[in-house]
TrEMBL record:
It comes from Taxus chinensis. Its EC number is 3.2.1.22. Coiled coil: none annotated. GO terms for cellular component: extracellular region; plant-type cell wall. One of its GO terms (molecular function) is alpha-galactosidase activity. Belongs to the glycosyl hydrolase 27 family. Its main location: secreted. Keywords: Carbohydrate metabolism, Disulfide bond, Glycoprotein, Glycosidase, Hydrolase, Polysaccharide degradation, Secreted, Signal. SUPFAM superfamilies: (Trans)glycosidases (SSF51445), Glycosyl hydrolase domain (SSF51011). This is Alpha-galactosidase. It is found in: Secreted. Residues 314-387 form the Alpha galactosidase C-terminal domain. InterPro entries: Aldolase_TIM, GH, Glyco_hydro_27, Glyco_hydro_27/36_CS, Glyco_hydro_b, Melibiase_C.
Length: 387
């Protein structure tokens, strides 16, 4: 048996039989791994902080904190970046008060630092905030605008769509982006029809939301979102696209360090986009330690690209697991209860032979467990924490 490292008692071991998943290509040839970066939607949404100085400062912080070195490369502007109305030619305009240099100049700055710039638009008549016009009927025009500015990532939602046909509207923008010839990661809102996640998503987008926008910096909401995203696990992968359960709330201050560590662990296991939404210019040491854990990030960015799932539960005590490349498996023991408890992962639940001897690595402690494990792994886990 080979030894391998895994995560937070997400752990390291050898799969006797593992899922073979080969990546060919996404619909536009990019996004073979979940995207990593920053989006200020939670911390700055449509507030005065949505401005070019914050974006530049965030770029600088990604570099100075070392987060860019572990993979965070996109810096994404969310809603309210533009004027309420288009110009006389029908073009979207950056808001003069908050982005006086324009988006092109901002993109040039981001690119000069080795990072990439993302932006937000909507498939309907106006954006979700109602403070900007949407792209319906302007898909090709807006795609050309985004490409000319040097945009690398488009977050595209579905507010205010007539007759509410997100698939049709998402496809229009997808085709328009491809026509520009610029590689732009295309991230859509919710599809609503489950068949679209199976059939349409991989042909149209690189990632898609699986949950509503009612995401709050509270443990109970994060748990619900994780469960909702878990349902869509079969539909994600490097040759398809990525299920998006929304942003990483780590560092916003309303959850505990253990709760934030749990979100980061589960999001990484689920191969979710890792998009920070706190103010990293003022990030604490604990926040940076969570977001910068390269061993957990490696799980998220693993080339096999198979979304991990909840594999067993007893009340609020859960085991999540998924295969990695090189015949490895990663496991999370997650205690959702209000008291410390012991959780056990049985080999048969995580895809291992019951007779397998396992070398396990704790990816939060960055160390191997001292003994070879047989049949199962058990550990005491604090309330709302994971191992």
């Amino acid at each position: 048996l080979d030894n391998m490292k895994m995560v937070s008692i997400w752990f390291a071991t050898l799969l006797a039989v593992f899922l073979s998943y080969r990546a060919n290509a996404t619909y536009n040839g990019i996004g073979l791994k979940p995207p990593m970066g920053w989006n200020g939607v939670y911390h700055f949404f449509c507030r005065p902080g949505t401005n070019e100085n914050v974006i530049r400062g965030t770029v600088d912080a990604l570099i100075s904190t070392g987060l860019s070195k572990v993979g965070y490369e996109y810096v994404n502007i969310d809603d309210c970046w533009g004027e309420k109305h288009r110009d006389a030619q029908g073009n979207l305009l950056a808001k003069a008060k908050t982005f006086p240099s324009g988006i092109k100049a901002l993109a040039d700055y981001v690119h000069s630092k080795g990072l990439k710039l993302g932006i937000y638009a909507d498939a309907g008549s106006q954006t979700c905030s109602t403070r900007m016009q949407g792209s319906i009927g302007h898909e090709e025009q807006d795609a050309i605008t985004f490409a000319s500015w040097g945009i690398d990532y488009l977050k595209y939602y579905s507010c205010y769509i007539p007759e509410f046909r997100p698939r049709e509207r998402f496809q229009k923008m997808s085709e328009a982006l491809r026509k520009t010839g610029r590689p732009i990661f295309f991230s859509t809102g919710i599809w609503y029809d489950e068949q679209d996640y199976i059939n349409a998503g991989p042909k149209i987008a690189n990632s898609w939301r699986t949950t509503s926008d009612d995401f709050q910096d509270k443990f109970e909401y994060m748990v619900q979102v994780a469960d909702q995203n878990d349902h869509f696990a079969p539909y994600a992968g490097p040759a398809r696209g990525w299920n998006d359960p929304d942003v990483l709330l780590v560092g916003n201050g309303l959850m505990t360090t253990e709760e934030y560590r749990s979100q980061f662990s589960i999001w990484a296991l689920m191969k979710a986009p890792l998009l920070i939404t706190s103010d990293i210019r003022n990030a604490s040491k604990e926040t940076l330690e969570i977001l910068g854990n390269n061993e957990v990030i490696d799980v998220n960015q693993d080339s096999l690209g198979v979304q991990g799932k909840k594999v067993s539960k007893q009340g609020d005590l859960e085991v999540w697991a998924g295969p990695l490349s090189n015949k490895r498996v990663t496991v999370v023991l997650w205690n959702r209860s209000n008291s410390t408890a012991s959780i056990t992962a049985k080999w048969e639940d995580i895809g291992l032979s019951s007779k397998a001897g396992v070398q396990a690595r704790d990816l939060w402690a960055h160390s191997y467990l001292p003994t070879t494990l047989q049949g199962s792994l058990s550990s005491s886990v604090d309330s709302h924490a994971c191992k």
